[in-house]
């Protein structure tokens, strides 16, 4: 079992650009959540996807959007990047929306 | 609203000494409480969780935590620290809303283990 896999592992973007991060959930999991972890901070909940729909959302602007595909994989899109978007982005999957979440290794995004 | 407070952003203990990492929560309804560990450049790994039932919860790597409703606390302990325990630890409160999770993490405590 490959666990939760995220790609890419590292990414550098320029302010104002757009970025797409990808997540493949653990086998048997149908729910994907995304978190932003700024340096020295705890993870902040961005949103959760289940049955290809956004079900819960944290306090993030509309520049942050996502998608879940029929195979349960997910993408996180961030438009009009700001320097403050630099962070580790973590994906977590679970068997259902209330079950224990398993985390991927994260994507380190640097905005310059 | 729910929140989590972790007292002490950095904790240092000697190898073999007791580890105590503090977590207090606020929640308007009974919460689910979790402790995660994060090693450098890694994702989060679940150490233990409290949902219902026994208030003393045992997790992996010899860690345990006790849910104390009267103190709104869920402190993490380990009787004897090992060098491999050096990592960052996050307390999280998870509450279901209409069947979906809303997760709030604390700011984390970095544990240093001194040989």
What can you tell me about this protein's structure?
The complex is a heterodimer of chains A (112) and B (115). By secondary structure, chain A is mainly beta. Chain A has strands spanning 5-7, 10-13, 19-24, 31-37, 44-50, 53-57, 64-68, 74-78, 87-94, 102-103, 107-111. In chain A, the strands form two sheets. In chain A, strands 2, 4, 5, 6, 9, 10 and 11 form a seven-stranded mixed beta sheet that branches. Chain A has a four-stranded antiparallel beta sheet with strand order 1-3-8-7, with no helix packed on it. Chain A is globular and about 40 Å long. In chain A, 40% of the residues are buried. Helix content of chain B is 0%, strand content 60%. Chain B contains no helices and eleven strands. In chain B, the strands form two sheets. In chain B, strands 2, 4, 5, 9, 10 and 11 form a six-stranded mixed beta sheet that branches. Chain B has a five-stranded antiparallel beta sheet with strand order 1-3-8-7-6, with no helix packed on it. The radius of gyration of chain B is 14 Å and the shape is globular. In chain B, 33% of the residues are buried. The model of chain B has no long low-confidence stretch (mean pLDDT 89). Classes of the chains: A mainly beta (112), B mainly beta (115).
Helical amount among residues of chain A, as a percent range?
under 10%
Return the average pLDDT of chain A rounded to an integer.
94
Total number of strands of chain B: 11
Provide the succession of SSEs of chain A: EEEEEEEEEEE
Quaternary state, please? heterodimer
Global structural class of chain B: mainly beta
Of all chain pairs, the largest interface belongs to: A-B, 26 and 22 residues
User: Which spans of chain B of ≥5 residues are poorly predicted at pLDDT below 50?
Assistant: none
Secondary structure: helix percent of chain B: under 10%
The tally of beta strands of chain A, per DSSP, is 11
Structural class of chain A, by secondary structure, is mainly beta
How far apart are the first and last residues' alpha carbons of chain B, in Å?
Answer: 41 Å
Could you list the spans of chain A in which at least 5 consecutive residues all have pLDDT below 50? none
């Amino acid at each position: 079992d490959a666990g939760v896999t995220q790609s890419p592992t590292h990414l550098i973007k320029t302010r104002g650009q757009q970025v797409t991060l990808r997540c493949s959930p653990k086998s048997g999991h149908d729910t994907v959540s995304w978190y932003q972890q700024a340096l020295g901070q705890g993870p902040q909940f961005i949103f959760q996807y289940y049955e290809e729909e956004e079900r819960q959302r944290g306090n993030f602007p509309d520049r942050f959007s996502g998608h879940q595909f029929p195979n349960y994989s997910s993408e996180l899109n961030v438009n009009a990047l700001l320097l403050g978007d630099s962070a580790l982005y973590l994906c977590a999957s679970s068997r259902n929306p209330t079950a224990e979440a398993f985390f991927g290794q994260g994507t380190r995004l640097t905005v310059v | 609203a729910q929140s989590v407070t972790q007292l002490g952003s950095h904790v240092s203990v000697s190898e073999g000494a007791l580890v105590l990492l503090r977590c207090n929560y606020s929640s308007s309804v009974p919460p689910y409480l979790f402790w995660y560990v994060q090693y450098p450049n890694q994702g989060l790994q679940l150490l233990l969780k409290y949902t219902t039932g026994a208030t003393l919860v045992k997790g992996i790597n010899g860690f345990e935590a006790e849910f104390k409703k009267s103190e709104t606390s869920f402190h993490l302990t380990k009787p004897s620290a090992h060098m491999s325990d050096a990592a960052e630890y996050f307390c999280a409160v998870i509450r279901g809303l209409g069947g979906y999770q809303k997760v709030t993490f604390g700011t984390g405590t970095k544990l240093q283990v001194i040989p």
